[in-house]
Design a protein that fits this description.
By secondary structure, the protein is mainly beta. Helix content is 4%, strand content 43%. It has helices at residues 105-108, 110-113, 227-233, and strands at residues 44-53, 62-68, 73-80, 89-96, 100-103, 117-126, 129-137, 145-151, 156-158, 167-174, 177-182, 188-192, 197-201, 205-209, 219-223, 247-252, 257-261, 281-286, 289-297, 308-317, 322-325, 331-332, 337-339, 345-349, 369-377, 384-392, 400-408. A hairpin with a 5-residue loop joins strand 23 (337-339) and strand 24. The radius of gyration is 22 Å and the shape is globular. The two termini are 12 Å apart. Residues 1-41, 268-273 and 299-309 have low confidence and may be disordered.
Length: 410
Amino acid sequence: MPIPRVTSRVGLLAVVALLAGCGTQGPHPADPAPSGSRTGEAPAHRAWTYEYVSDVDPVGNQVLDIAAVSKREAWAMAELHDAGGSRPRMQMLRFHGARWQRYDLSSDLRDALDGGTLGSPALYAGAGSAWLFGRVSHGPGTYSTPIAARFDGTRWRGVALPEGDDLAGVAVLGPSDVWALGNPKQQTAWHWDGRGWTATRLPLEARAITTETAGGHLRVAGNVPNPAADKADESDPDHPKPRPLRLAAARWDGRQWREERMPDVETEDARFSGCRTQVQTLVARGADDVWAMGIEYGPYTGTRYAPPGDRPCALHWDGKRWSTSDALPAGILDARRVRGENGKVSRIARPPYVTGITGKVTEVDRKQKFRLAEIAPVPGTDEAWGVGKAELGAFGDANFSRAVIVRYRP
């Protein structure tokens, strides 16, 4: 079975944002302890291999996002510095069966960009289609404007956006079947039918959407509105108070969204050990095998929550109901770890060192860091793409940054 994307743009260590917020009942066990190392480190389970490495620059080069359309097609967005340039520019990259190459997106979207520059890009793919969402900057003293585009097989074409600037998630189910979640507070999901967007009303504040149906229903997940708690937070919106969360999911039946109750998550008690944020990732592996996942946060200290740990928690749909689960689906957890179908966690070895400013791998270059910003599955395989950077910092003239794209093959 292809490895699901247990990751997200929010943060790779958060089980590729697989997660961000669901509750557990009772103590949650830690990940299975890896074996085979006297230091306690998991045995290596293959390694990332480089598929693209940018030119070297003292600082700033990185690949921000990636979406895989098929085994032979993928798209990525990179932030690159030109030689001697002081400001980075956004560069689209395309994989078309053999290698990664630069793609002239600005030429395709000249009218949509209207002389502005693209920023905050987010790529989505599914069912053989690719979409891009972002914002366009028009210079100092102006507001950025949202933009959307789809690849029609020949070029990228601008698409009118649904109302509102904020999107919480996108599911590309086909060339004329795309769903976009609006701001959670608006409780709206927008559907693209190839001609335009239609609004549908959600029974919850959705923060996640399944990116594929896997033979089942399209689902969203989030929490049921709590107007009283929202009003209490108005005086200090940066430090919301603990509140009981009523998590919920909803499935699309072809005409409307039908709510599915999830187990309650009680967060008023600071001693409660469960997750303390909303569901942010949904993974559908089958009609009776859907996962809503999150990362466990530490206790509430009175001003804010302690930082998230690396202990995931999950809710599972078995075809009849949602329940808490101590298990997790197989998948890549982050840049260093993969969970097998047997539940065991293995280590993914890092790729070789890249050359530094001198064109060689010097002793100081071996202190470089390999950082991934996003991981995406390769459709129909157990492989995955990863994007980010290899960088060296705090070493003066030796500092460098290279944008990288890597591939995982089990």
